[in-house]
């Protein structure tokens, strides 16, 4: 057999091995993905998709610095395909993960040839815990996985253009870059990576022609022009939307750099506690954020050991591999511009570097760049002449123990992340609440409270965290949702902590009946409270036995409100802002007098002593 035939056969084996590796990691990661459910932003995106038409304004809304018309389009479709469709979401996640793995394999094969060494950076990408937190969050999947697919595909197309000069490859590179931009603003750095890759590796002559290498860049002006035009158009759309989009808290976005000390701390924290540990198989330990998410929590000893190992790896590569310094500089620049700066311009002042510095979700797409940089720092390009600064030594396999340790650490870290309920808690809550709504009569009054913070945090999502919103996908329920209790509401229900419906009870102060009922007419009657209420918003539950319907004026301190009170025996509710030690009540206008019984004032809560609907919560 000829040498060329042997090489082709070896290349086929490498390609087949790479495909098998991608397939195996899909099975491995599916075990985690299938246990996840929607959370936080996921509900917001799908609810907003249900409420909106498929319009330009809907697609181009900038969500706290995130422009993802592709993700919003998918959310719009998801709302019309069953709402919280787990099968569709998980299938899409695994399909994108498969595409991202195969796309990276293709790029590595084009860059370095079908040599076994390319399986090392591919294996890193497939195993690294850097991508795991984003896989458990549908909103993060919509951003990061399309970019992980688009980045290597765009670089591959650009590489083919540099090699043969065909414009169709430029068109393909633009298309893949645009695809990435539809989902994540970080795709704007793809053309910059193309430029660096071309200048540093693809457009170089001999070792003595550095100046000529830069001149060769201009040979590819037919690529730089459309890349630049694409970025310019996207930038205009993004910044226009950024300054015009009204957020769900009715505020507009005004990005600005934080204090330099805060910026420096975040850069250090995200690099030393996020990027480096996860690149070496960490973080080994996780800090739970509820039941369905976690942030990195690497032990201090392993963090410092990781920094030392990283410094040694970089030093060895720079000593032996030509232009390894440029590879690591590229990674550092990407990390700074694509991972650090966007957070500094966005939410760093809200949560601080001490929290966000441990967030691996910001680094998910960076795993692809790390894999490419590993290849550039240690593997000669296909056909590259004189790739080494020094002759190869017997220690060229010294990386194998480190690779084994990183593999073991990655498996351990992913298993530790998966050792939690993940989506089960939220799935059970939504399932229980949905079942409860199916078991109450049409028109039942339900107090529309916020879902638990672990489902969707009201502090961030405001009205999108209400039960009526979260449970109203894909279709609204035929019940009467009440934002507040006011007037004679018959038998109102509310959700308990497990998602079951229970009668409303007023938790606070109670004024028992005093010899039947107290007559109340146009003159104020004072009801002294058993304790003094501080200023706030309270709900009063007033029992009555009236001969005719009337209207009550209820006063607490300086706060006054009017509510109806029905005929015969019943109760009415008054929501009032005020404070003090007594409640005063009178009838208004020429209405008939009322006779009032027990009064409770405080805050509405589910009555835990009353029967629940359903009796037992859903348990998946």
UniProtKB/TrEMBL annotation:
Keywords: Membrane, Transmembrane, Transmembrane helix. The chain crosses the membrane at residues 12-28, 87-105, 117-139, 174-203, 223-243, 301-320, 326-348, 360-379, 399-418. It comes from the Bacteria. The keyword Membrane applies. The keyword Transmembrane applies. Signal peptide: none annotated. This is Uncharacterized protein. It comes from Nonomuraea composti.
